[in-house]
Amino acid sequence: MKYDFTFHNPTKIYFGKDSLDNLETELKKYGKRILLAYGGGSIKKNGIYDKVIAILKKCDKEVFECKDVLPNPALSKMLEGAKTIRDNDVDLVLAVGGGSVIDCAKGMSVAAYYDGDDVFKSYWVNHEPLHKNKIVPLGTVLTMVGTGSEMDAGSVISDTDNKIKNATDLFNPDFSILNPEYTYTLSKYQMVSGIFDCMSHLMEQYFSGDDDNTSDYLIEGIYKSIINATKIAVKNPLDYEARSNIMWCSTMALCGIAGKSKTQDWEVHMIEHQLSAYTNCAHGMGLCAISMPYYRYIYKFGLPKFVRFAKEVWGVDAIGKTDEQVALEGIDCMEKFAKECGMITTLKELGATKEMLPDIANSCILGGGYKKVTHEEILEILKNCYE
To answer: E strands within 18-61?
Structure first.
């Protein structure tokens, strides 16, 4: 392990079919007033809402609601929830949904008693350390996998007025309840979108460095697990073992441990954030459309790692091939897998227009791992992603 690091993850995980039974125990640790945050109403159709409300009533909690959190959560909704927290002296925010709901709930908890001038600018743009004002505790009940937000500090919020979508680290949930069966009602589109989000998190951490790092071996194992589980889940979405493996892979991918002692990349995410700011596309699908052209653009600068990826993750046979051929075959395998699973691989399919591409490219935060890209290079990558 080349670089020093500190690892601490304070989130308590309850995992499995009966994991919601632990909500009552957790609720006893907090005060009476609860803000329930959720999305467009699917939790009411599948019965999860009723189960959670029944437990809240049993615990004699006073419930306030912040609903209709969008898949790309908006700053306006975050501030709405923050006002509800502040006006009602809420003791705990309970986010029931996927990563977007959890991300937005983190923002609500931080913004409620924020004592500065512009909470979005402070944390999501300037990435300032958190102020010392009160932060309301957060618990989650996960219903869609992909973001890893149930066990990390990350929060992605969109300022829709200014077309800025940024990520920042805020704080971890106190506890998260993960029942793989709660993901059964997702559409195939939602399921595979979340799966590629998880895969992208792994690749953003993997494609960096030239040292022999334990984290890379962990990433390879998680990646192979999610490939195998995805093949099963696409054929049988109700396969509990496959869905449970996907859920835990997603949590492990971004809980902090897989990227320790690594420099990391994250440029694919920076590009996608601005893509979805302009198109409101599903995050995982945007990542999928960008990833293959991006990696074909930068692979020569980290050739040994791309060769390793091809051989160790995708089982590419290197006999009689150059390193470049092996590396490109690994990327081809990833693209083939994505298409077979029904993932989106072009920007055109996501609603982007050619006229948008320069604005998307010019608004991206610059960075990268093996190759530090420019705005001009991002535009070239986007053109290669288009169709």
So the answer is: 33-37
Residue 254: inside a domain: yes
Res 193 pLDDT > 90:
yes
Cα separation, 59 vs 29, in Å, equals: 11
Structure tokens at 117: 């001038």
pTM confidence score? 0.96
In angstroms, the CA 93 to CA 34 distance is: 6
Residues 52, 98: one domain?
Answer: yes
What's the domain count of the chain? Answer: 2
pLDDT tens digits for range 347-359: 999 999 999 999 9
List, edge to edge, every strand of the sheet that includes 33-37.
12-15, 175-178, 138-142, 92-97, 33-37, 62-66
Strands in the chain per DSSP E: 12-15, 33-37, 62-66, 92-97, 138-142, 154-159, 164-169, 175-178
Does residue 284 carry a pLDDT above 90?
yes
Q: Position of tokens 């309301």?
A: 136
- Does one domain contain both 21 and 100? yes
Burial of 6 (0-12, 13-18, 19+ CB in 10 A): exposed
CA dist., res. 297 & res. 245, Å (int): 32
